[in-house]
Design a protein that fits this description.
The complex is a heterodimer. Chain A is mostly helical. Chain A is about 75% helix and about 0% strand. Chain A has a single domain (about 1-340), classed as ABC transporter involved in vitamin B12 uptake, BtuC, CATH 1.10.3470. Chain B is about 45% helix and about 20% strand. Chain B has 10 helices and 14 strands. Chain B has helices at about 1-25, 55-70, 85-95, 110-120, 155-170, 180-200, 220-235, 245-260, 295-305, 335-350, and strands spanning about 40-45, 75-80, 100-105, 125-130, 145-150, 170-175, 205-215, 240-245, 265-270, 280, 285, 285-295, 315-320, 325. Chain B starts with a helix and ends in a 14-residue tail after the last helix. The chains are: A mainly alpha, B alpha/beta. At the A-B interface, helix 1, helix 2, helix 3, helix 13 and helix 14 of A face helix 1, strand 2 and helix 3 of B.
């Protein structure tokens, strides 16, 4: 309840800030927001595009949120996406399997790729206490340059050095019936996988011993250790699952929304995942809805831009400002905590989020 | 305690609600900004890079802007979030839904997106520059609401080759290309033929060695462009023709550094007149001349034809010397008058068909 309210306040703050900027540049906020939401939701094909835009964000949001629960900051979702997407693309371009099996193998490849990319920082954290923020960011760049080398080297497109070959229609996550249902939108199976992932992660966090242990490590590492939990194992496991989720996000992005991999781009969805997780208060359901909101914002920008007289660069700034404020939920949490805790001198809960255990 | 917190939250929401309402109140009058309700709406989707990229996006946009001034159309460009087909299509859809039913797309990267768009938006018109719509199999399908535009890059490169040879008389030339795609290759082959023509017919001796014809492999690796140019200049090359976008910018920067140090090196620019980009030490420029593709003129021209009810739908247009779609800049401060006159003569010969420039590799380098 409290988390929901805090998130709603942040969203409203964000919309106000964005509206102020629109006013400042001489556009009408009411009109702007009308077009923004129309652009995202006006017809069935736009709704499909919005859902497709949100899909990778659900995965990266989940990835970041899951690691948060164990007190880990996974900033490397972008790199894990790249590797997950690269593995899935490689599978799709190399093996000639029947569609259901191929997609299953692609998903597994994405999970393994992303998981491996997060396992390494997790292992270093557990074994040598290397801070995961530093190591995951470094892994992002290793992933970036790995793709830069592998794609032109092994999966070069016909003319384009900067893109992999295009996947055949039947080896992408797109399906004809979904495309038809949403009138030519690029929505794809990734959305269903995202929903399944949300359910599974919610189950793991709330209903299993593993989830309990992970949260315990997040609350207080030393207490968890004292209680006999294998803290190091849990840290590695948490990163592994987080990375696998981000890897799946890569599969959804590169073999669903797009059908080829481009080099030299670190997917912005990786970092947006942090904002999604914060806004979603680190709960799987919250992440899902936060990702949908982000999907609406990103998807509606172009139409808003086409309808009101502002340059595209400013349209993007408006969206960025809304997101910036939407991610201030932590600040609002803290503010509320301060009011509440004026009498007791108890320390604020440490870590990035106010109440980690709350779902 | 729980209650107080809730109350605070509620009051915050209320407060923000009032603020939002206040925002809305003041600006209902700000809607009548668009000039001329009936003006034809021309939209453009940008390719990778920004609108001021000194290349495709900018030149095309300048053409549209010119049309806005001269023909009173209304224009708008959208910048996609990335360069995938889905993102291109999304922005085309946005322009279409906003009433921009004449959409210009600069670059071959739009080929598959335009292929789908021409079917999806049957009452809209599409112009694709430097590409042919296809479904991914490179078999061109130009529907009645689309026009594909190509340029005779080889003729442009040919003129640049002739001009470089005439101006330098003797020395060595080099070529830096971006990706090995037809548009860039044709510039290269034309340039080689131009140098050869001048050597055989106009008494120059500019040499071009195979090792000095290099494709970098991208259009945005500025640093690599600088390195390749440095290697060429160190090998004794005097003039480099760059057809490489951002890679060319790197080469220009390298040449400027050498120019400042007193070395005699030149660059031949590409696509638009790059003279300004090559300026150093005040009013000197490292740009000898530029092999232009007149994207702005062509864009303006097609918009004009649309307004006249003469849209060349379904056609694949080629702009070459004959219709002044390519050429060297009108002003070339670094070329002598003698060179300029002779190049003009050659241009006329290309125009009349007396000189034929091959668009195939034949026996040329790469």
């Amino acid at each position: 309840m409290r988390n929901t309210i805090v998130s709603l306040i942040s969203i409203i703050l964000g919309l106000i800030a964005g509206g102020l900027l629109m006013l400042f540049i001489g556009a009408s906020p009411i009109e702007g927001y009308t077009y923004l939401f129309q652009g995202a939701l006006k017809n069935i094909s736009r709704i499909g595009d919005t859902l497709a835009t949100a899909t990778p964000l659900v995965f990266t949001g989940l990835a970041v949120a899951f690691a948060f629960r164990t007190g880990l900051f996974n900033i490397g979702a972008a790199g894990q996406m790249l590797i997950g997407g690269l593995c899935a693309t490689a599978v799709a371009l190399t093996f000639d399997l029947s569609r259901p099996i191929l997609i299953l193998v692609m998903i597994l490849a994405g999970i393994v790729g992303g998981g491996l990319w997060a396992f390494i920082p997790g292992y270093f954290k557990a074994r040598f206490n290397v801070h995961e923020v530093v190591s995951t960011i470094m892994m992002n760049w290793i992933a970036y340059w790995t793709v830069y080398y592998v794609v032109p080297g092994y999966f070069k497109g016909e003319f384009l050095e900067t893109e992999s070959r295009k996947l055949a229609e039947e080896s992408t996550l797109r399906t004809p019936w979904l495309t038809e249902m949403f009138q030519g939108s690029y929505i794809n199976l990734g959305l269903f996988f995202a929903v399944i992932a949300v359910i599974i992660i919610a189950f793991i966090i709330n209903k299993t011993t593993l989830g309990f242990e992970l949260k315990a490590v997040g609350f207080n590492r030393h207490a968890a250790e004292y209680a006999g939990m294998k803290v190091n194992r849990n840290i590695i496991l948490s990163m592994l699952i987080s990375g696998a989720l981000a890897g799946l996000g890569g599969v959804a992005l590169y073999t669903g929304n797009a059908s080829s991999m481009q080099i030299g781009i670190l997917p912005s969805q990786g970092y947006d995942g942090i904002a999604v997780a914060l806004l979603g208060a680190n709960s799987p359901i919250g992440v899902f809805f936060a990702a949908l909101l982000f999907g609406i914002l990103y998807s509606g920008t172009g139409f808003m831009n086409a309808m009101i007289e502002i340059p595209p660069e400013l349209a993007n700034t408006i969206i960025a400002i809304i997101i910036y404020f939407a991610a201030t939920s932590v600040m609002i949490h803290r503010l509320l905590n301060k009011f509440r805790k004026t009498r007791s001198n108890a320390n604020d809960v440490n870590g990035p989020v106010g109440k980690k255990g709350e779902a | 305690m729980e209650k107080r917190k809730f109350g605070l939250a509620m009051s915050l929401i209320l407060a923000s609600g009032t603020l939002l309402a206040a925002c809305g109140g003041g600006d209902d009058k700000g809607t009548g900004t668009d000039n001329g309700k009936d003006a034809v709406k021309i939209g453009m989707v940008t390719d990778a890079g920004t609108i001021d990229d000194k290349s495709f996006n900018q030149n095309t946009w300048e053409g549209i802007k010119k049309a806005e001034e001269e023909l009173g159309i209304q224009s708008k460009y959208l910048k996609p979030a990335g360069t995938t087909e889905a993102e291109y299509l999304k922005e085309m859809g946005n322009l279409y839904d906003a009433g921009y039913k004449f959409i210009v797309t600069p670059g071959f990267k739009f080929e598959t997106a335009v292929f789908h768009a021409q079917d999806k938006y049957k009452d809209a018109k599409f112009v694709i520059l430097d590409g042919n719509p296809h479904s991914g199999d490179f078999k061109p399908v130009v529907k009645d609401n689309t026009v594909a535009v190509f340029f005779a890059e080889h003729e442009s490169g040919f003129l640049a080759g002739v001009a470089a040879a005439l101006e330098l008389k003797e020395g060595e030339a080099g070529f830096i290309g971006g990706m090995e795609i037809p548009a860039v290759q044709k510039f290269n082959w034309g340039f080689q033929q131009g140098v050869k023509y001048a050597n055989e017919n106009l008494g120059t001796s500019l040499t071009l060695k195979a090792e000095n014809v290099v494709y970098q492999g991208s259009f945005d690796n500025v640093a690599a462009g600088g390195q390749i140019a440095a290697q060429m200049y160190d090998r004794g090359v005097d003039v480099i023709f760059t057809a490489a976008g951002g890679v060319g910018v790197g080469a220009i920067n390298e040449a400027k550094t050498r120019g400042k140090a007193g070395e005699k090196v030149w660059i031949v620019g590409v696509d638009s007149d790059q003279y300004e980009d090559g300026k150093y030490d005040g009013d000197k420029s490292i740009i000898l001349t530029s092999a232009m593709k007149k994207l702005d003129n062509v864009t303006l021209d097609i918009i004009q034809r649309e307004l006249d009810g003469d849209f060349p739908g379904g056609e694949t247009l080629v702009f070459d010397a004959k219709n002044d779609g390519i050429g060297l800049p009108a002003e070339n401060p670094n070329l002598s008058d003698d060179t300029t006159t002779k190049v003009k003569e050659v241009f006329e010969k290309v125009k009349s068909g007396e000189i034929k420039v091959a668009s195939e590799q034949g026996s040329l380098f790469k």
